[in-house]
Structure formats: structure tokens, C-alpha cells
Design a protein that fits this description.
Elements: H1 2-5, H2 23-27, H3 30-44, H4 62-75, E1 80-84, E2 87-90, H5 91-98
Antiparallel strand pairs: 1-2
């Protein structure tokens, strides 16, 4: 489902001014919403789904910063990330790490609406180089 929930969309509107993917913008793209709905339907049906990517560290990947964030924040579906054999981390743990503890689901002041949005860890698009012509 890389064409709908993949980490590198073809939609130029999903980039910020510095060429980073803005996952908040990506979450609003209709094709992403359709792909996310497939995951929600699978969860409702009791299916176990594996979401894989080339990035091994979930804290550096769109799996947690986009897909897992949307599933948890908007649909109360917890995603678990395989870190190593017999070792997993919950989406809650990953987001807590990404925010350096600023977001803590176990806090008395927890507010699900406060899960932040993230951007990609590096820029994937740059402005075209301007070539000056001299007469």
C-alpha cells in the first residue's frame, strides 16, 4: 500500500517550505485517508497487519510519525513496532520519545488532542537551482 500510505507522496502540497514532508498535510490527503481506512477496517475485522518500511528505527519513520500517530490519535488504535527479536515498543512509547516526554499518555493531564504532528527527519525536495543568464 505504498501508493497510499507510503512515506514519500507524489503530492507536492505535502512538503513544507524547506523540503521536509509535513505529516499533518499528508494525513489530509484523500488517498492516504483511504489507505488508513483499510488499516482501520482490518483492525475492526480482527486481522493482524504488518506495516513495513525501509527505515528500521520507528522513531525516524513515517510509520510512527504519520500512520501510528493517526491510528492512535484519531481512532484509538495502538500500533506496536518491532525493534528487535522479542522486543516491541508501543506507539505511545515512540511518541513519548519523539516529544522528549512532553507528551505522556499516562499523565493526569493527558489530552489525546495534544499528540503533535511531525515532519520527516530529512528534506526530500529542494527548490530548483536558479541559473542566471548573462547577456
Amino acid at each position: 500500500m505504498g501508493d497510499c500510505i507510503g512515506g514519500r507522496p507524489l503530492n507536492d502540497d505535502c512538503y513544507d517550505e524547506n523540503g521536509f514532508f509535513d505529516y499533518q498535510k499528508m494525513a489530509e490527503v484523500p488517498v492516504f485517508k483511504k489507505g488508513l481506512q483499510r488499516l482501520i477496517d482490518a483492525n475492526t475485522g480482527g486481522y493482524k497487519v504488518a506495516i513495513m518500511c525501509s527505515e528500521s528505527d520507528p522513531s525516524q519513520c513515517h510509520r510512527s510519525k504519520l500512520i501510528g500517530r493517526e491510528l492512535l490519535s484519531e481512532h484509538s488504535i495502538e500500533m506496536y513496532h518491532i525493534i528487535a527479536p522479542n522486543k516491541i515498543k508501543s506507539e505511545e512509547d515512540i511518541i513519548t520519545e519523539l516529544t522528549n516526554g512532553a507528551w505522556d499518555p499516562h499523565s493526569l493531564f493527558f489530552d489525546n488532542d495534544k499528540i503533535p504532528y511531525f515532519k520527516s527527519r530529512k528534506a526530500y525536495k529542494s527548490e530548483p537551482e536558479v541559473v542566471e543568464e548573462y547577456d
